[in-house]
Write a structure and sequence with these properties.
Radius of gyration: 26 Å
Shape: elongated
Structural class: mainly beta
Number of strands: 42
Low-confidence stretches: 1-18
Mean pLDDT: 91
Largest sheet: 40 strands, parallel
Helix content: under 10%
Oligomer: single chain
Length: 548
Amino acid sequence: MKMKLLAACMLFAAQIALGVTVDVTRAGAKPDGQTLCTEVIQKAIDKCSAAGGGEVLLPAGLYLSGTLYLKDNVTLRLEAGATLLGSTRMEDYDPYNLIRATGAENIAIVGEGTLDGRGSSFWVAADLGRSRRQYGWVTTFRHDHPTDGKGRRLAPGNLILLTECRNVRIEGVTLRDSESWTVNLLACDEVMVRGVKIRNYLHGPNTDGIDIVASRNVTISDCDIYTADDAIVLKNRVQKYWSRACENVTVTNCILTSSCNGFKIGTETLGDFRNIVFSNSVIKAGRPDEELARTGASTIQPDHWGNALAPLAGIAIESVDGSRIDGVSVSNIVMDEVRAPIFIRLGARNAAGDKSDKPCPGSIRNVSVSDVIAREASTASSVTAVENAFVENVVLDNVLIHTKGGGTEQMAAVEMAEKRTSYPEATMWGHMPVSGLYVKNVKGMRIDGVQIFPDEADRRPLVLMENAAEVSVTGFVTGAGNAGASVFLLKGVRDVWFRDVRIPEAAPAAVWFEVTGGSEGVSVDTPQIASLPSARVKSGAADKVSVR
């Protein structure tokens, strides 16, 4: 026995010295799902890195583990059928997370295997009678996060936490049942995440898919993410990195299923964001009969609106803590039952308080959203800023939205509160007095080739604009479901142009354009208007409207 062990150790050392693949089972790891393998796998990583780098291999089997630290020049490869199984005992974590790395370079997690955090074993069921998470109208479980006498948290947190790492690759693996955020990329540079599958329960608390926090030069592609919280989100909440911009990020060819948001910038926006691209992806709702949705579906509140297992927003772009967001391109996106397809919000929550020297609100400018199809939306899209601020230079181009409709006169009469310091969510206003698009405090906006159709008769305006300036609307198309007092309601706007707007004559709304609040420079220029009664355009005495 001793001779066999010595031979195995000699072979293990030889493999590391040559920089080749190291099979952890030959180093003593037992893939039985019962024997803790943390020490064996960590020694393989350490020795491999010390020898100049290589690959640590997990063949098919179950490897029970606590925290593993990736080191320079090491690839952790999980073969098909291999599962790295997170321990359910906190004493096996040092201090948290299944995979950690700090300041490492040239690291990778690859293969066809699985990292299973078993995070749900740390959750506690919420009080079904009183507790409700706003983002899902689903009674979520909560983290069991008391601390011991030393202040140590009693749950593992992120499945993967990489801090200040460079040249990172995560490819091919399946990541499942994370206790909270699944992948946390904190202040990293040169990251590629490709072909990753994430599977988390829809009743889980804070189980984001991929969080890009103050990181640069990040590419995410070909991923399939199913999770309760934001699927892919860019943010910055760590004070050490407030001065570091999150920039040069591309996300493409992904399938995102979430009960929170599909693709999001925010909510924590204590640093700047620039040069962000999101494209060629599908965003969709979970289904009650799906394995990961069943528990959540059983706790849906009876008074919810829309699909309670659907994303709050498909695309959410938020600056609420003073950040500057500049240069965001979203294109070629299909959404299925997403509640609000587009949510752009400049707010003034100011989470940093007097700890930051950034003025609040910050800014959102130069955003393009194009070639989007959304079916069964239940909440209006919105582009808004708080008072004394403006979202600037936004383009909505070739966007097709089918809303569920069904809005009532009582909903149309609702006054929209500013919610200056509120947590930003697409559903933050509840039942909005507008069915399709809400625009407030916006300067410089182009709406080109946008089509919004209420599937059921809706008695709210389709589009509501307040304090908007320099807006052009060209080729807008809608259907006969607009049954409210007006289709476009404009309040206190300036220099707004409508060209070639197409509203079917069968639309019950008697007024197509209602202008109030001392608006100036409103121009309605479309051949359709010329042959119709002037009552289609209604304005007050103080409003300056040109109709051709």
